[in-house]
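Interim report, section 4.2 (structural modelling).
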Amino acid sequence: MGKVIGIDLGTTNSCVAVVLNKQPVVIPNKAGYRITPSYFAITKDNKKLVGNLAKRQAVINPENTVFAFKRLIGRRFDSQEVELAQKSVAYKLTRGPNDDVRINIAGKDYSIPEISAMILIEMKKVAEEYLSEEVKEAVITVPAYFNDNQRQATKDAGKIAGLDVMRIINEPTAAAIAYGLNRGVDNQKVLVYDFGGGTFDVSILEIHKGVFEVISTAGDTYLGGEDIDNRLIQLFLKEIKETIGADLSSDRMALQRLKEAAEKTKIELSGAMESMVNLPFIAYDKTGPRHYTRRIVRTELEKLSEDLIDKSIAIVKEALKNANLKASDINEIILVGGQTRMPLLVEKIRNFFGRASHKGVNPDEVVAIGAAIDAASLSEGSNDMLLLDVTPLSLGIETHGGQFTKIIERNTTIPVKKSHTFTTSYDNQTAVRIRVFQGENQIAEENELLGEFILSGIRMTKKGEPRIEVSFDIDNNGIVNVSAVDLDTGLENKIEITSSSKLTEDEIKAMAEEAQLYEIDLKDE
Amino acid sequence: MNNPETVIKNEKILHIFEAGLDSFAQGDFVQAQKLWKEILELDPGNELAMDYIHSIEEEVSFEDKKIVYKELLDEAIRLIGKNQFEPAYELLQMVIQNDPKNEKAQEFLDTTKGLLLKDYLAEIGDTNYIVKLNKGMEDIMKINLTKESAYILSMIDGNLSVEELLTLSGLDRFNFMRNIAMLLRNDIITFIRPRR
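Predicted structure of the assembly:
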């Protein structure tokens, strides 16, 4: 077996790491960057771009530049999340043949795993160039709240990219691995605060004798560092209009520059008390070119973004409540995501918990490092580390009247197997349709449909007499298997589970072949 | 000491320019445009003459415009014959902007762009070379840059090649290379060999 890499496939940025000589190493790309923007684009002359180049032309080519597609992976086209996403992005979302969501770029529909695979191919390429050997296996991280469809779709993305995904692990768990193994932590409750570019997640873990247990999660898929960038962009647009008289809100070239300036300013203000915004030739009028220059101080940025940080603290409170814990019960706080470098954010967390957060890990890279450590332990067959995760959402089936009957409660440690006995609703009913949902709503349809199957061959009798045992089996990867057996006849009936948004093997194979062509394009560049 | 021929030429240009201004003031735009055209014959690409020819657009009646732009087209063709592609391009752009259906002008414009692109690429050389800024921002701000040039400059980070900047710019190849050539000529940018 060759080297197994760890990949943090982020909503905004991705990172790849590997363990070399027993030390985790983040692998930089050829340009020297240790993180790669999770952007994919096709230009008007049909060039495929990934990473920094794709991001830097995103504003001038918005219809054919895809980002934050992680919010859509494994989702059905008619889900609420997809409806919300379409309002916030310029690229077009379409319905796939399996009712999954696809993205139309330059006239062609791409599945989300296919686009995710473009990023993974890039990460694979970066690793192979660094290691000077082929890379075939990886551990990939996902948010703790990802359901079965989303985890499977991530695995499919790996397959399309030519990677055998040995394990899907939760991002906070990976962060805790990087933290735990480095610091010899034991018997502690750890809160992982992940403020990324586009999403915010909180997870509370318990680390005991090398066992990592996720005990609760909470988050907001539309809260991230980019929201702070947008506040700055709006400020610049307003001032440019007031001082120069130019409305640049529809000027794509100007907006691309403003976006880059906003992010640069925000980053600088994490280290310095003030920053200069310098945008020469930002607008043109009858007098000629106009320039925008202004000094911005840290307190001004803090004023602009404080409500967003307060929102994140409210979500922290929710996670604590889910775990029946108080702030004072938390032993360590781990910060993940570049935005956590912001001094105000660090201060607010310190004030809330009454203690400082741990500073020993690079917040941009910690998840990839943890994934690499897990990858190394898997490839060595090591037993040093046992991961225990929980299912973030309750699992159950739809019962009579459209109700949602839970079989596995949320935050149950996995792997787990639980069963429940059901019966028929009508006399002489010979088949039942079992619809598997994940969520917390009492109405089944309000939750996420994972799959459904039919159990037939039930003996004809009065309603309520047959006994049908439905079993839920969640494995280490968080993948759900549901089975049913008729206990009275003792017969094990054949069960077929139909996932509503999975790619077929043929589709994956075709996408993988096409992705190889893309790889050739990259080498030619 | 100035070259006598240049001095004479400049004085002559000055006289013609002033005569053009007089005609313009009297509302004889066709005559004004004719005189400023003469300046281009003596000094191809003369920016002042070009600016004033542009200004005619706002003043001239539709019928007069037709005459004006026909003459501009004729002048552009004459300049092409003399391998003066840059001023020819400027004049052809003016004609097309006001008469987009002018097939003859479009044909000459396409040909001129092809020839200019060839010149630009020869001037630029290897488009895989990395682009770097050669002047400080204070100096750059004194130069009258186009919006496209300013955008291209804002993208330069010392890691991107000419081809990569073309991709980021969203511009068509001709416009991009035209701006790069201008930036190179004015010593605003320089190229370095990429790292292996």
